[in-house]
Recover the amino acids of this structure.
């Protein structure tokens, strides 16, 4: 894989977030095996796409292409018709912001962890990003609110609070493309639903890609993509894919059964509605 760098001809266009994968293939590092192959996908600006599949199916590889962490070995990825390799990295990475599953926090104020790398951001904008990420629910529990020192690697925060801080960090940058790479894994189902509803109402044309192991996090997406062994195996809405009765439907049934078993173990007299 070549080094990722700007070319002399790289440009800085104003981007809106219409994404296309055109015949994209990515080889696994140092092997002849393909992590992704023959991927053709269009994501219209302002829409939300859910991406699901088994561990190792190629979901994170697909997302890595968007911020040019890697480049494809065949085919191309474009935003608004521009090949990503023709866009200045600074422009691309301010347009596409990814929230990873593992959150990197520093021993400083929560406010500064959210605005990391940005200067002169008003508290109103920080608070709004925290509100959409449902982090404001926790501020009353912190001794100094946004001014609380969170400790090295966020040691004083729970896993869910760390992930919501990372989402707020992304939102305060107001990206045109927001990528959530299994970054709601430690957030409870109810709070996840609230965050996704806020993202839908506040995105104002923002393109969202959500990778999740929980189908409840993607069921309301405009389009859901099922990745299997590096290829797109199924695509459609939640209802379309259930009607197809293929991989997605099987995943849904397993998740529903597991949720019902977990709920029964916790309270044998209660019924589960979390992912219905």
């Amino acid at each position: 894989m070549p080094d990722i760098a700007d070319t002399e001809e790289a440009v800085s266009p104003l981007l809106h977030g219409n994404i296309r994968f055109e015949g994209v293939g990515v080889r696994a590092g140092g092997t002849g095996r393909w992590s992704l192959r023959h991927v053709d996908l269009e994501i219209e600006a302002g829409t939300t796409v859910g991406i699901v599949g088994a561990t190792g199916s190629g979901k994170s590889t697909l997302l890595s292409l968007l911020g040019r962490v890697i480049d494809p070995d065949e085919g191309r990825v474009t935003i608004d018709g521009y090949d990503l390799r023709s866009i200045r990295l600074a422009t691309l990475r301010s347009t596409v912001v990814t929230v990873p599953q593992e959150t990197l926090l520093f021993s400083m104020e929560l406010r500064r962890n959210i605005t990391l790398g940005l200067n002169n951001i008003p508290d109103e904008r920080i608070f709004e990003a925290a509100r959409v990420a449902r982090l404001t629910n926790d501020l009353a529990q912190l001794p100094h609110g946004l001014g609380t020192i969170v400790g090295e690697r966020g040691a004083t925060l729970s896993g869910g609070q760390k992930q919501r801080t990372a989402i707020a960090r992304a939102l305060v940058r107001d990206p045109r493309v927001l990528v959530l790479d299994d970054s709601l894994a430690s957030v409870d189902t109810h709070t996840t639903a609230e965050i996704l509803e806020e993202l839908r109402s506040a995105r104002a044309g923002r393109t969202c890609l959500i990778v999740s192991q929980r189908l409840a996090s993607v069921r309301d997406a405009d389009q859901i993509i099922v990745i299997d062994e590096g290829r797109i195996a199924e695509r459609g809405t939640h209802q379309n894919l259930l009607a197809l009765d293929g991989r997605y439907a099987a995943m849904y049934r397993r998740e529903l059964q597991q949720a019902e078993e977990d709920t029964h173990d916790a309270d044998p007299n209660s019924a589960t509605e979390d992912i219905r």
Q: What stands out?
A: The two ends are 43 Å apart (CA to CA). The chain has a mean pLDDT of 88. The first strand starts at residue 19 and ends at 27.
